Amino acid sequence: MTTLPTPTPTPTAPDAAHSVSLLDALRPALPDLSVGALLGFATGVALRYVGRVVLIVVGVLFITLQLLAYFDLISINWIKLQTLTEPWLRQGGEQGASWLRRVLTANLPFAGAFSAGLLVGLRARV
């Protein structure tokens, strides 16, 4: 009589069992993460467009002032303007980004996903 070899059970891959449990652990957080990333992306794209509009307005204002100064309708003391605005601009540049981040992520349970989406939205070519 020939006996057939008994099949040995194949061990389950530890990675497969581990990834399933990780996916199960993350499943409740996925809606918050996806909403946070989507809102962050939309905010980043909006900030890019608003920033462009602000730069255009500042540029047009500068051109207008220069035209008025060229035709001797006004006189601009650029040195005085620089001394008045330089401390304000320096402080705004140092504290503006952290203030904006605090405002945009206040009371958000998905602040990490929002921040990641915001960075992607700021860099997106939409």
UniProtKB/TrEMBL annotation:
Protein localization: Membrane
Membrane listed as a keyword: yes
InterPro entries linked to this entry: FUN14
One family name in Pfam for this protein: FUN14
Primary location class: membrane
A single GO cellular-component term on record: membrane
Record-annotated membrane-spanning stretches: 29-47, 54-79, 99-122
Alphabetical keyword list: Membrane, Transmembrane, Transmembrane helix
Family: Belongs to the FUN14 family.
PANTHER family the UniProt entry points to: FUN14 DOMAIN CONTAINING (PTHR21346), TRANSMEMBRANE PROTEIN (PTHR21346:SF10)
Protein's UniProt name: Putative membrane protein (Fun14 family)
